[in-house]
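Q: How would the structure tokens look for this protein?
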Amino acid sequence: GSYTMKRATWRSARQHVKAVRTCDTERLEQSLAEAAAAFPGCAERVLAVLIHVRAFSLADALDCMKAAGFRVGHALLTLEVFLSSSHAHDGRQSEARLTLADFELAFTFWDRLEDAVKAWLSVSFVRVWQSPAGAGLPGPLLFRLKELWQHTPPTAKQRLPPARACGLGRSKEETFDLLDSHVDLNGDTTALVGELLSRGFLPPDETLGRHGLIGGLVWTRPELAAERLLAGTIALDKPQPTIARALAAAIADSSSELTDRAVKHFGRFVDLLSESLPQSTNAALAMAGPLLAVAARLKEEERRPILGALSGIYLGPAPGETRVAEVVHPRAEALAWFTNRTVLQPSYEIFLDTAIRAISLRELVGAVRPVESLRVSRGFQERLHAWALAQLERRDATSTQQLLQFLTRWLVKLCTAEQVVTWWLRAVDAANSWSFLLASLPVASAASGCDERLHARVAELLEGDTCATPARADAVLLAFAALWPQKVLSQVGIAAWLPLSRRRASPPPSVVSGTLASARTAESAAHINDALAPEAEMARVLAAHPLMHKTKTKREFEQLEDWVLRLEPRLLNVAPVQARLMELLCATWSDRARLLVLCEKFAFKLLVVSETPADIASLVTFLRKCPHLGGKHDFLKRQLARYASASTGGGLKLAPLLPLLEAFAPTAEALIDLLHALLYFPLREMCNDVVDPPVVALLYRLLAAEEEAERRVLLLRSCRFRTPPPPERDECIDSEAFEAAVTAAATAGTGVAAATPDVGDAPPPLDLPCPLFRHFGPHGEAVVLEYLRSASPKSLVKLFGGGGEAEAQQEGAAFAKLCGVAMRSWRLAACRLEEVADVLTVVGWFPEARSSCAPLVWGAGDDSGRFEALTVESQVEQHTAQVRQVLASTPPDLGALPRKWWHCVPWGRCTEADLAQLVGAGVEVPLSEVGFAARGWPTQQLLLEAHADDVAALVEFAPQAEGPIGVYLQRVFELLPASDSLLRKLGDGVEDEERLQSGWNQLLHTLLAKIKLRIREQGNPLHSEEQLLLFGGCATRLADPSNSTLLADLMEAKLVDPSHIFELIKFVLGCKYVPNQSGLLHVVRDSALRAMMRLDKGERDELHRTLLQGRESALPLQVLFSLAVTELDASVQPLVVRQTERLDADGWLELLSLVKDANPVSGKVHTFPRSLGPLFAERFLARYLRDDPTLPPRH
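A: Here is the predicted structure in token form.
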């Protein structure tokens, strides 16, 4: 029943809603009242019917419902009410159309509405605002409803036209928020921009980044837009083509000054276009003219990056690719019937065609990006060629490198072969540069198919260059061989062609930096050297500076420096150039140091290019005239050394330099000095022969002018070059055979000298190959032979020894080798005592003179007394040292050598018989020089006996003898007490006794060390007598610890013969020790005790008895300790007990302490009284119990 009643209720409600929808207007209020009375819950459906069917506004509908009794409020404002479909028969959804009052009413419930309802209201309001009806919406109302229309951002299609944002009267912040969120700025913004400008919302110092506003500003105020773009207050990310085009036109029409800041922002604008507009080809083409017009107003360095970026707009993504633009066909206007009104054309060609009207050739090369290959129209080729020719006539700052780059990158790729040849011929004349010609010739030839006009022009220029260097002519010939091989072959012939064809053409030389403006006015040396006619160019430059030697400014000096340092030497051979530069260098300038350098460089270049005596005469004139060179001889010497080092090969010709040598070498010494600078180089091999007859004649003429013969031969010796005789016509000299002949001549000369002791003045004929003759020729040989006829031994030593200088000694040694044969002519008439050393020195150099000089040498001094009678000791030492030096090379011949020279023999070369003879004759033989240890024992005895009174020699060499040395040890210890002066000299210390003791220990140390070495290395131990003598002598004084250690070592097992130790042990153990005076230290006794323990038991017991029997004095405590802890024989024990009875309390305390110290602190005891246990037991116990072993034992 309830379900039936409920269905009836809903049916009644639908009938009431239907009644509201279908009733007449007069009964509407009654139907609404009945519905409100019967069914108040259907208010939402009734509101939808009133809005959608009966076309009530939202406000009117709510008023009617409220008057009928419905409860109205925000709950009725649902999305179903505004988007209702219940009233439509076709089921489609109907959207409510609200008025401004409806939106205001809904906004009163805004905070309590659902989000979906808010979104629909926001979009609906914007739609109303966007419609024509929204044009008159007042600004205050709009911004009062701001929360409503800002709730949902509109789509791009729903955005407002720019005109709706005008006239609202809001603040700047609110206006720009509205523009960013709801206004479509891609529309017509001219009115909006005008209002923003009028209200001051677009100040000049604020950056404008909205493209729509930028476009409106360009179309409204183009000059202002250009000004702001150049000021950097317009920010474009990816500009639209139309805006970019309008901005370019505005900048071109702008009259504002292009400051550095404006240039920077204009460059950024062009870079932006090159990145974002490559696809907008037509717009980019339209911008080419305006942008190039702006670039033409900039400085050249500012224009280059802009041109590079601008050219990138017209290049494709691939390297060297150009874009294509659709342009009007050139014949479209002339022919009305022409149907194809447009044609596709590379945009890069159009850009270049526009660009060359505003830019220069250097800007095209340095800034515009080139294209690898491009097919261009014939008209453009003609315009480009005409433009390139016009650029050559401008004489601007276009460099020769840029001309070469233009030819390589542009002309050969865009123009015809004929145009390339025409331009190249004009460019060569305009550049006035050989380097440009050689570098561009292969390029122009390859582009023109090796046109003959190129060959003819280069040949003509080379023929006209009278100063062309061989390198330049060679480079031209190689280039011709590579480009026109048949022509070169026909000109030079097959013989010269074959090596030429094998040579690989070198890379083109680097183009000398220059410009078209300086091609005919350049004054630098580099441009003059590179000019097509350098001689005429240099004459023109010098004529342009007629007063340089008077004005002498800093710039003029730098110009002169450039000429002297960098002009090619060939230009200095030109007489006018040479004369003018001499005049300038002889003038006085402020910077004298740099002027001296210039004079040196100039003189050297003149020396290099001099080929005739006239050229040398010019150099001589300059050297005599120039006041800045200092010492002319030293200056010329330096220049000649540089000239010789720079000369290639070994064929240095001296004859052309004869005027120079005659002018600056007045003496033979000066000439030799200059020739050395020319010919002698120890760092590398060169021909050091002077074979030019005029120079040789000058040398010996100057030598003949010297007064003294010794001076002449010394000068000849100083020559480090040769003046050989001219070879015979049929002469063929083998160097090895020649040297063999020289050696044979020397040997034969020795034999002749030995067999013929003729001392006459007549020299023997030199008919053998003489090295001196081969070295210096007949003139030099005559100088030496003339000197040798009267040469003294002292002068010969000076000649061949050279004195103290190393260089002179080398010269003398080399000269002695040359004079080996010539010295046969020298004869020694007599020999004084003071000449002996000199004669022996000469004989050492020339052994063949020994036999003839020996009798005179050994007899020297006989007429004036003995040699030892010389009063000056230094003379004795000097002559002795010289004689020893001469005799050191051969074994002594005592039979031929006079007695007075025996002390000078080489001791190391003496035989034992020689030594015996020398000792017998009373000659003092130095033991340190005779090799004492290697001599036989008889000779050693003889030598030691000869030094029997020399304690230092005995100490040093007696231990080195092979035989017994006891007698020498005894002699040593006999001499020591009487050698106080020697001991004081060797010793250290302040007091005399200290020095004596120190000297004694030093001599003793040497003796002991030598004896230890004798035993260890020679295996020759000391015998018993020798041991007793050595230890007894050492005990006479107290040896220091170092020597005591050596004595102890001599009793160790490895250094002693066990069969010869018994007596030594007995002596050491029984030796009395006196503190600080004599005796042996404990370390020696310890070694003796160890040696005693190594004896057999029988020998040890015998030693004990011998040591103790009949002894009245007390044994040393350490010896007594050793006996006490040893197993003793029964016959020895009473003797040891008798020694212990001599001990007092301190003695016992020390003895027991020795026993204690000999054992470990813990562990097994190993050292204790073995045979005398009862004697020690009670004392050990007393020490243990009372720690007082001094008390007598208890019984």
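The mean pLDDT is 79.

The first strand starts at residue 83 and ends at 84.

Upvote if useful.
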